[in-house]
Specification:
- Strand 2 and strand 3 (23-28) form a beta hairpin.
- This protein has three helices and five strands, in the order E-E-E-H-E-H-E-H.
- It has helices at residues 33-47, 74-82, 98-110, and strands at 2-4, 9-16, 23-28, 53-56, 85-88.
- By secondary structure, the chain is α+β, with helices and mostly antiparallel strands.
Length: 118
């Protein structure tokens, strides 16, 4: 999710535990594989649960474009290092990531659009 401030853009990275419905979110100033990798390294500690599998969309902050290369990127290497399996949603099927999409929508309506950030 993207939201603007007066002079800079920020992005929301969110993780939702399917069973307990715990939500961890972080605001970053760049949508990048570096930020998602840093986020995942601290996620188990923040969510206070062992993560066995993580599901993401196919954004460049998570995976390489498979039409160009099958080489893993930093996020995927970080998951492997942590022993976390990676499941990717199918392209153009937003319902597979529905909880995250809904959270983005709710946060956008109730928080980001009603506040001015500096």
């Amino acid at each position: 999710m993207l939201f603007d401030t007066i002079d800079k853009k920020y992005y929301q990275i969110i993780a939702i535990d399917e069973y307990y419905r715990k939500i961890i979110l972080e605001i970053v100033d760049e949508k990048s594989v570096t930020n998602t990798s840093i986020f995942i390294k601290t996620l188990e500690e923040k969510i206070e649960l062992k993560i066995n599998i993580i599901q993401t969309d196919n954004g460049p902050e998570f995976v390489n474009n498979q039409r160009k290369t099958n080489l893993p990127i930093l996020f995927e290497l970080t998951l492997k290092e942590l022993g976390i399996n990676h499941r990717r949603t199918r392209s153009y099927l937003q319902w597979q990531n529905g909880k995250v999409e809904r959270s983005h929508k709710i946060n956008g309506k109730s928080f980001y659009s009603k506040n001015e950030f500096t």
